[in-house]
Structure formats: C-alpha cells, structure tokens
Design a protein that fits this description.
Blueprint (H helix, E strand, L loop, with lengths): L14 H19 L11 H15 L4 H12 L2 H22 L2 H11 L6 H16 L2 H19 L3 H18 L4 H10 L3 H26 L19 H11 L4 H18 L5 H14 L1 H19 L2 H12 L3 H19 L2 H19 L3 H16 L6 H9 L6 H4 L4 H15 L12 E2 L4 E2 L1
GO cellular component, one term: plasma membrane
Family: Belongs to the NhaC Na(+)/H(+) (TC 2.A.35) antiporter family.
GO molecular function: antiporter activity
Length: 451
C-alpha cells in the first residue's frame, strides 16, 4: 500500500481495534479480580475480535455489501491464508511428534547428559532446545516445570529461580522456532522468509541466552547430589525435531518442512508402536483443531485491519507516529514500544503481533526499515513482555505447577533472559551488529523481497 504523506486519516476508524483490545483487557481484569484461574485466557480472542468487527460495520461508511467485500478481502489476503496453513501444519507436527514420544525423549535425553551440579542452567538449555523444537513455550513449561519442582528441594536451589530458568528457556525457543505461532505471525505480517528472521533473531537472542546460562551457573549451581533415575529415551524420536530445524535453516519452504516433519514423526511413531496409521491421522487432525483459535483470530484480524485501513485508521496512527519518529532507529523503537504495550494489554504475544504487524509493516515502508528486522523486533518485544508479566500464561502455568509453593510474582524477578534480551535488542537498534547478516541479501523495496 502506498502511504499518503499528507493524509491525516480518521481517528475514529481505529476504534474497532481498540474495542477488541480493551474488551479483552477489561474481561481479563474483571476475572482476575474475581480470582479466576488463567483470567486473561478465559475470553476467546476470536469472540473479542468479533466485537471489533461489529463496531466496524456500524461505524464505517458504505453499504453492507461493500463492507463485507472489504472484510473478506482482508481475510483472504495471501499472507493471511499462508499464515493459517502454516498454523495448521505446525499444530499437526507438534501433536504428532509429542504423541510418538518426541517430547519425553528430548527431555530425558537432555537430563541424562546433564551434570547434576548445573541443573538450573541445564534446565534453561533443555527448555531452549525443546521450545525451539516444538514452538511452544507453554508445552515446554508443562514438560519441564514439574522436573524443576522435583529437583528444587533436593538441590537446595530456590524454586522461583528454577522455574524462571524453565520459562526463560521456553521463551527463547518460542521466539526463534519456525513452528511457533509468534514466528509465523511476525514473518507473514511482514512478508519475509523464516530463515532470514531466524538467523537475524539468533544473533540478537544468543548473547543474552549465553549470559543467562553463566548467571544460572553461578547463582543456580548445587553442591548437593541430585538423583536422575529412571530416565529412558530413544534418540530416534528426537530426529523429527532436528529434521525440521535443519531443513528450515537451509531454506526449504516452510510448508514442505512441516509436512516432512509430520511424515517422519508419523513413520517413527508407527515403527516403534506408539502410533497406528489411524491414530496418526487422528493426531494430525487434533493438531489442526488445536490451532483453531489462532486460525480464526488471524483471519478476523486480517479482515478487521483491512476495514480499518480503508477507513483511514492506519493513516491516522501513522500521523501520530510521525510526531515522535525522527528516523529509522526511533521507528524501530516505536514499533517495539507499541508491541510491548499491546502484549501487556492482551497478555498474548501472538495476538500482539497480529494487531501490530500491519502497523509495523507500514512504518517499515515509510522509514525504509528492513522488514526482516521489523519481524524480529515484533517477535522479540512481544516475547519480552510475555516473559515479564506475572499474568502471562507461561508464568501462570509455572506457578500453578509448583502446587502453590510459589506465586507468579516471585518468578518475575528471576526472569533474567527476557530482561537481557530487551537490552540487547535495543542495543542492536543503535549498534546494528546483527544486521550484517542481512547485508548479504539486501532488501529490494521495488520487488518486495531480498535479493
């Protein structure tokens, strides 16, 4: 879309998106005040988006047919459809790989080679690999938090620190993984390839991860013996995760990567008796179903954003941005700040990216930001805030799995990785040390792709 530099836009046109965000936020706050578990995750996001869509239909000018046409065009945008297909395949891969024992094999393999004296740092590393492999920080926390709880007393290490190591590692993986919904949303909203975003993101995320490991080695080491008994695993069951990672890094189309991962995981599961051909197909469909919410939300946000943009809402927001943005660096910081605020309001990093993605894309076009860097900024800042809010799903789950031993608020001060990640990301904006990897394939704005 070509931006109109003189257009003031229409401030009221942005109201439907605000209705979506604040309805979700208000319901979460009310439920939290009533003591409801996982309060910010009780109100289905597609329903909250529908409230914004209804407001848009009443607020915007034009016939109902014209508005429906605009909405459907937004839902059917090429990037939205591809994003939804990737979601489905990612869900199927994660479900099949878990069903054939991939998660248990990965966890037990990591624990079996882990020196007991460095259990806390080791849990961070295992969580980082598991999160990158599965694309799910929640799944990572669910698998490893009970391990952290079991080891905490035996090792004499504060439980909040151990749980923070697990959550931090999971957030590292969620931020980088090609099967993560945040990565899918960030890359598709900016129209960039996952391998480019992964490589750039890794250069930004690796230094804070290394520093976190060093801190955990120093503050989370134990002189007490920790029993690691009964750990059984089959290294073959880790192969699907490694296959997906390698194929993605060498640049194979992500749809092919995920399909290959599903097939290989299914074959391994059938050979070792964990799956039958029928249960394999059922797990694929179960994986599809697990992505229904984010699938619907992506389409609804795509349609709503198209309506808001046509009515002048994006032009209005850009006019506001121009008052504070003075160049590429401040533009990147503005995108980051907007993402932090949106994630704080919604407590959902994928939702934050879906809302801010179209806005970030227009800012990138106007200030000639490399969209691969923009995709990384969206994903990183959303994951940073998600790892620091005590009402975020990952920290809430870690707290609940401690069986009341710790509160989510006691975990946050030990979330060193998100804090360091924020610092290094800001540094990478002012001192673009990671951007050198993008220089090998400069972005061509006329063609809309890397050379």
């Amino acid at each position: 879309m070509k931006l109109d530099q003189k257009s003031k836009g229409n401030g009221w046109a942005f109201l439907p998106l605000l209705v979506f965000v604040f309805s979700y936020l208000i319901v979460g706050i009310v439920l939290e005040s009533q003591g409801v578990d996982q309060a910010f995750y009780q109100f289905p996001t597609p329903v909250a988006a529908m409230l914004g869509i209804i407001v848009a239909f009443f607020l915007f000018k034009g016939s109902v047919s014209e508005k429906v046409d605009t909405f459907v065009k937004g839902c059917g945008d090429d990037n939205i459809i591809i994003m939804c297909l990737i979601y489905l395949l990612a869900g199927a891969f994660s479900t099949v790989a878990k069903a054939m024992g991939g998660v248990d094999a990965t966890v037990n393999l990591g624990l079996s080679v882990l020196p007991p004296s460095v259990i806390t740092a080791g849990l961070f590393v295992i969580a980082a690999f598991l999160g990158t492999s599965t694309g799910s920080a929640m799944g990572t926390v669910g698998a490893l938090a009970p391990v952290a709880v079991g080891f905490a007393d035996k090792a004499g290490i504060p439980l909040p620190l151990m749980l923070a190591a697990v959550v931090g590692g999971g957030m590292f993986g969620d931020n980088l993984s090609i099967v993560s919904d945040t990565t899918i949303a960030a890359t598709r909203t900016q129209g960039v390839e996952m391998k480019d975003k992964f490589r750039l993101n890794l250069l930004i995320a690796l230094p804070p991860a290394v520093i976190t490991v060093i801190l955990l080695l120093f503050f989370g080491s134990s002189s007490d013996a920790v029993a690691l008994e009964g750990l059984t695993f089959n290294v073959v069951k880790v192969i699907p995760y490694l296959l997906v990672l390698v194929l993605a890094l060498v640049g194979v189309n992500v749809l092919v990567v995920l399909t290959s991962g599903i097939v290989v995981a299914g074959i391994i599961g059938i050979v070792y008796g964990d799956l039958t051909p029928l249960s394999f197909s059922q797990n694929i469909f179960e994986g599809f179903g697990g992505m229904l919410e984010i699938f619907l939300l992506s389409m609804f946000i795509g349609g709503l954003t198209k309506m808001v943009s046509k009515a002048g809402g994006m032009d209005f927001l850009l006019r506001i941005f121009r008052k504070f943005v003075r160049g590429p660096k401040s533009a990147q910081l503005s995108i980051g700040a907007l993402t932090l605020a949106t994630d704080a309001a919604t407590a959902n990093n994928t939702v934050a990216i879906l809302i801010d993605g179209p806005i970030a894309k227009q800012i990138s076009q106007e200030y000639k930001l490399d969209p691969r860097k923009t995709a990384s900024i969206l994903d990183i800042f959303s994951c940073v805030m998600q790892g620091l809010i005590p009402y975020g799903a990952q920290i809430l789950l870690a707290g609940s799995l401690s069986e009341g031993a710790v509160s989510p608020f006691s975990i946050v001060p030990f979330m060193w990785y998100p804090m360091l990640l924020l610092g290094f990301t800001v540094l990478s904006i002012f001192v673009p040390y990671a951007d050198r990897i993008l220089c090998k394939r400069p972005w061509n704005w006329e063609k809309g792709k890397a050379e």
